[in-house]
Amino acid sequence: MSPDAYLSLASILFAIGAAGVLLRRNAIIAFMSIELMLNAANLAFVTAARAWGNLDGQVVAFFVMVVAAAEVVVGLAIIMTIFRSRQSTSVDETSLLRW
């Protein structure tokens, strides 16, 4: 397959993730959409690395996966704490983090 097909898939996945972040008001859905966007970027990095014949894109994709894993752990811990105290994960409520 050509790199164009992979880059097209990456752009579609990124657009779906961006739409999820912008349109949905649930924090968990927003985190899943951010993860989808990060995976789309990883696909683009790996595709570029394979097309150019070097490993730079794969190294960047590895670091993006490490940062995404740390972001998920911290983000879900914050969301669970907010849900336990407020019984809501809506991002529209701006006073969630105020005590």
Element layout with pairings:
Layout lengths: L2 H21 L3 H26 L3 H31 L13
Rg calculated over all Cα atoms = 17 Å
Flag low-confidence runs: none
Q: Major beta sheet, specifics?
A: none
Query: Outline, from the CA principal axes?
Result: elongated
Total E-strand runs: 0
pLDDT average, as an integer? 88
Helix content: over 70%
Summing up helix and strand content along with how strands pair, one would put the structural category as: mainly alpha
CATH architecture: Orthogonal Bundle
Number of domains: 1
Task: Please report which band the strand proportion falls in: under 5%, 5-15%, 15-25%, 25-35%, 35-45% or over 45%.
Answer: under 5%
Calculate the terminal CA-CA distance, rounded to whole Å.
54 Å
- Reading the helices and strands in chain order gives HHH
CATH fold description: Helix Hairpins
**Secondary structure tally, helices:** 3
State the CATH class: Mainly Alpha
Written account of the structure:
- By secondary structure, the chain is mainly alpha-helical.
- It has one domain (about 5-85): Helix Hairpins (Orthogonal Bundle).
- About 80% of the residues lie in helices and about 0% in strands.
- Helix 1 runs antiparallel to helix 2 (about 25-50).
- The longest helix has about 30 residues, at about 55-85.
- It is elongated and about 50 Å long.
In short:
By secondary structure, the chain is mainly alpha-helical. 79% of the residues lie in helices and 0% in strands.
Characteristic key phrases:
Helix Hairpins, 99 residues, 79% helix, mainly alpha
